[in-house]
Amino acid sequence: MKELIKKDEYGVFADGKETARADSLFVAKFFEKEHKNVLRDIENLIDPESGLSEEFNRLNFEPTSYVDGWNRKQKAYAMTRDGFTMLVMSYTGAKANRFKELYIKRFNEMESHIKALSEAKADFPLLTDNIKLLYENPQPYHYSNECNLVNKVALGMTAKKYRELNGIPKGETIRPYLTEEQLYLLNELQKADVTLLRLFSDYNDRKEYLKQYKDRLLLEQNRLTA
Question: Do 35 and 24 form a contact (C-beta atoms < 8 A)?
Fold first, then answer.
């Protein structure tokens, strides 16, 4: 299965459709169960006689595979939050409850990560691609920090604040609402920040350079229109 965001140490990842999932192999490991027994539990759930709908099973239990220690391809499942919840409802005891809580936290973190990546991709596709190249395991703040930096230098505020001031629905890209000058600045500063990420690890260094670059861009625009 294609992974938009790689598996963490608990096997929670984002698939190619930006859905948080958990790998059944990892779930077996952390709940201290044989994987074959976890597979049995899943297949009992997706059995037509279980009472769950075919649609629920299709959306929440995706067949996948892994290669074992003997280089053999073995079956596994990638579960959504709902699929995981349905599976572990029957796992009881204090230790099982601790792992349920931990996985809920991991799902929340992964969904936050997906949201940050999705919003960044909508407004800053080139920037997000380079962040993924620069960091082995990029976190939500890697995307939000850079997007906020470029927006604050170009527009004087974050995209969130711009939406609030202009009555733009939450989560919608702000680009269609920008003036031609704002859009030009945003695009140019984004391209500059892609290079700066490779040169300067310090956020404030990048911020200062972008502010200076913005001033030069505005001076050049004024010269051309004078």
Answer: yes
Q: Sign of torsion, CA 100 105 106 107?
A: positive
Closest C-alpha to 203, from 148, 154, 132: 148
Strand order in the sheet with 12-15: 3-5, 12-15, 20-23, 73-80, 61-67
Report the candidate in 152, 153, 124 with the shortest Cα–Cα distance to residue 216.
Answer: 153
Q: What is the pTM of this model?
A: 0.61
Residue in 157, 144, 148 with CA at minimum distance from that of residue 117: 144
Give the model confidence (pLDDT) of 131-156 as tens digits. 877 777 788 788 888 889 999 999 99
DSSP letter at 50?
A: G
Rounded to 5°, angle at Cα 218 from 149 and 212 = 50
Mean pLDDT, residues 26-52 taken together: 96
Using CA atoms, how far residue 129 sits from 43, 115, 122, 124, 125, in Å, is 38, 15, 12, 9, 6
Residues in the chain: 226
φ, ψ for residue 138, nearest 5 deg: -60, 140
- The answer to whether residues 61 and 79 touch, using CB atoms and an 8 Å cutoff, is yes
| Phi–psi pair at 7, nearest 5 degrees | -60, 140
